[in-house]
Design brief:
Layout lengths: L1 E6 L2 E4 L4 E9 L3 E10 L6 E6 L5 E3 L7 E6 L4 E6 L8 E10 L6 E5 L3 E6 L1
Parallel strand pairs: 2-11
Antiparallel strand pairs: 1-3, 3-8, 4-5, 4-9, 5-6, 7-8, 9-10, 9-11
C-alpha cells in the first residue's frame, strides 16, 4: 500500500503565492507520473498539471504560466508552486501518483486526501 499526504494549503489574497507538497510513503519501487488536480464546490474535478519521472511537465490552460510542478524523487515528493493566485483558483487540491510497488512492480494510481486552497478577492 501507498499513502499520499498533501500539505501547504491555506488562505491567501489575490495575487499571492502558495506552495503545496505531496509526499508518498509505503510500498514504493518507482514513482512514474505525479499529477495535481483540484475541485471547487459545485464544479467537476479539474486536472491542473503533471510531471513525468524524467521531469517533463504539462499544465492545464487555466494555470499555465502561473503554476509550476517540481518533484524530488529522493523524497518521493511532488510540489505545486502557485503564483499570481486568483479567486477562481480556490478549491481542494489533490495529488495523484502512479506508483510501482516493490512487492509486484505493478503500477497503480494513488490519491491524496486533498488540501484546501482559498484565495480571497
Amino acid at each position: 500500500q501507498v499513502q499520499l499526504v498533501e500539505s501547504g494549503g491555506g488562505l491567501v489574497q489575490t495575487g499571492g503565492s502558495l506552495r503545496l507538497s505531496c509526499t508518498a510513503s509505503g510500498d514504493i519501487a518507482r514513482i512514474n507520473a505525479m499529477d495535481w488536480h483540484r475541485q471547487a464546490p459545485g464544479n467537476q474535478r479539474e486536472w491542473v498539471g503533471s510531471a513525468t519521472s524524467s521531469g517533463i511537465t504539462r499544465y492545464g490552460d487555466s494555470v499555465k504560466g502561473r503554476f509550476t510542478i517540481t518533484r524530488d524523487s529522493g523524497k518521493n515528493t511532488a510540489y505545486l508552486q502557485m503564483n499570481s493566485l486568483k479567486p477562481e483558483d480556490t478549491g481542494l487540491y489533490y495529488c495523484t501518483m502512479n506508483v510501482q510497488s516493490m512487492s509486484d512492480n505493478t503500477p497503480r494510481n494513488y490519491w491524496g486526501q486533498g488540501t484546501q486552497v482559498t484565495v480571497s478577492a
